[in-house]
Structure formats: structure tokens, C-alpha cells
Amino acid sequence: MNWLMKVHILDENDHDPVFSDGASLRTVRQTEGNRVGAVIARLTATDRDQGQNARVSYSIRPLDGTADNAFSVIADTGDLVANTRLDYETRREYRYELCSR
């Protein structure tokens, strides 16, 4: 008896995502007194791969290692969301590492 077998070759992620302007640093300026849950910026990257490997997903993490949840990013859209009401007198800057994959 002979058996038939199909082998599907899956595409490897050949290219890393690149932010639209090629910069490695994003600066977002937001005035204090924002609405909690408001989208304050949209992050945009592209990937030259094809199919599922061209899909970009976003994440952020505080650079200082603290469990800071002042902001979050919607993984599929790149929308940066303020999870707290920002106050200039309390804290003037937040630093995050932005990742896309």
C-alpha cells in the first residue's frame, strides 16, 4: 500500500517591522487633564513579509522596570491609551520601550 503525504512549507519571519518614519525613538506630547481611556497616539509600523508574517503587533514596557500601568497599547492597532489622568506637577515624563513584532 502506498501513502500520500503533503508537506506545507511555512514562511519564516524574514523582515522585522519598521516604524513608518524609520526612527527608533517616539516622542508623544500630551497635555495634563486628559480623559482616562483616551487614545493619545497611534503607533504605525510595517513589515515587508507576506501573509500572516506581515501582521504587526505592538507592546510597551516601562524602561525603569517598574510595574507602571499609566499607558497601554492596543496590540492590533498600535493605539496608545492613557490609563490614568496625567498631571504635570506629579510626573512630567514617562519612558517606555516600544516593541513591534
Structure overview:
By secondary structure, this protein is mostly beta strands. It has a domain at 33-101: Cadherins (Immunoglobulin-like), CATH 2.60.40.60. It contains no helices and 7 strands. It has strands spanning 18-19, 39-42, 45-46, 58-62, 71-73, 79-82, 96-100. A 3-stranded antiparallel beta sheet has the order 2-6-5, with no helix packed on it. A two-stranded antiparallel sheet has the order 1-3. Strand 5 and strand 6 form a beta hairpin. It is elongated.
Brief synopsis:
The protein has strands at 18-19, 39-42, 45-46, 58-62, 71-73, 79-82, 96-100. With 101 residues, it is mainly β.
Secondary structural class: mainly beta
What's the arrangement of strands in the largest beta sheet?
2-6-5
Portion in strands: 15-25%
Percentage of residues assigned to helices: under 10%
Q: Output the CATH homologous superfamily of the domain at 33-101.
A: Cadherins
- What's the Cα radius of gyration? 19 Å
Q: Which regions have little confidence, pLDDT < 50, spanning 5+ residues?
A: none
Q: What is the architecture of the domain at 33-101 at the second tier of CATH?
A: Sandwich
**Average of per-residue pLDDT values:** 82
What's the tally of helices? 0
Report the sheet with the most strands, covering strand number, pairing sense and barrel closure: 3 strands, antiparallel
Q: So what's the CATH class of the domain at 33-101?
A: Mainly Beta
Strand count: 7
Question: Element order, helices and strands?
Answer: EEEEEEE
Report the end-to-end length measured between terminal Cα atoms: 45 Å
Instruction: Please state the overall shape, judged from the principal axes of the Cα atoms.
Output: elongated
Report the CATH topology name of the domain at 33-101.
Answer: Immunoglobulin-like
